[in-house]
Amino acid sequence: MKIKLRGHHLLCLQGFQGYGYSEDFVSNMTRINELRKSKDCIISLTNEPDDICSACPNLNNNMCENEMQNSIIVKMDNEVLSKLNSSKEHNSIDLFDEVSSKFNSLKSVENVCNGCKWTDECLFYKKLK
Question: For residue 63, what are the CA distances in angstroms to 50, 84, 87?
Answer without folding.
Answer: 11, 23, 22
